[in-house]
Amino acid sequence: MTSLRTCALLFLLTACATTPSAPTTPQDEVVLAEDVRIRRIAPGVWMHVTNAGKEWGGTPANGLIVEDGDASILVDTGWNPRQAEALITWARDSLHHPVRAALVTHFHMDRTGGIPTLEAQGIAVHAREDTARRATAQGNPVPRSRLSDAQDFGPLSVFFPGAGHTPDNLLVFHPASGILYGGCFIKDASAKDLGNLEDADTTTWPASLQRARAHYPDARVIVPGHHAPGGSELLDHTEALLREAPPAASR
Fold it and tell me: How many domains is the chain built from?
């Protein structure tokens, strides 16, 4: 009987002394909601995809979450506050790199729609002065902190190449991975046209693309504002679409 008690005690002590499991790492691809998903595209770099509501035809829009030390940076905020909430909750609870700052690449709703959630949680949202001005005029959420036309932002580099999809479109580069986030300034390989040209300047856009190439010659992967990433062929494809653009599209 004593021997049995001793064995039982040893078993319990061994079980209690077992080292706890390490925190699980996030999966490479995660669905957070029917209209929000995330995919790892490089070490420390995640592409988020949010889908618009019916008023925008369910269009998917890309953005990034980039790890920065023990925190992360959100690039573009999703179409609405609920989607932004899902992204920052995932970054905090699953990635364990809570969003400390955000930036938006132009003033349209697929970039700025989640700003109210970020502001409510005290997360600063950065953009060019022109982006803030145009968001205000459009009645879209307004980023309160400012970016210059060319600067470093944590592990990122931001650059304004000139007008294109919009007069204010900003590029974001992650030098460590060679990922260039082009936003809606760069079209995906499957695009048959330039998409929404309501605020575009198709006359200036080709020269702006050349400035983008010159500024980021080391870009290896390009993430467009919508649909699948690619390589430098996305710049070529965007230029080809611009050559076919009707003159009436120029702003």
Answer: 1
Q: Is 36 helix (H, G, I), strand (E, B) or coil?
A: strand
Where in the sequence is the domain holding 146, given as residue range(s)? Answer: 27-249
Structure tokens at 187: 């079209």
Q: One of 51, 126, 168, 184 is an active-site residue; which one?
A: 184
Q: What is the mean pLDDT of residues 41-61?
A: 95
Residue 165 lies in a domain: yes
Distances 195 to 12, 99, 184, 215, 234 between C-alpha atoms, Å:
65, 31, 9, 25, 15
Instruction: Supply the DSSP symbol for 233.
Output: H
Catalytic residue from among 51, 62, 76, 108: 108
Distances from the Cα of 170 to the Cαs of 112, 186, 193, in angstroms?
13, 11, 20
Kind and range of the H or E element at 61?
A: strand 60-68
Q: How far is CA 134 from the centre of its chain?
A: 20
What value does the mean pLDDT of the chain take?
Answer: 91
pLDDT of the residue at 7: 41
Per residue in 140-167, pLDDT tens? 999 999 999 999 999 999 999 999 999 9
Is residue 106 part of the annotated active site? The answer reads yes
Whether 5 is covered by a domain: the verdict is no
226 has catalytic annotation: yes
Q: Choosing from 48, 97, 106, 126, which is the catalytic residue?
A: 106
Q: Give the domain CATH number at 95.
A: 3.60.15.10
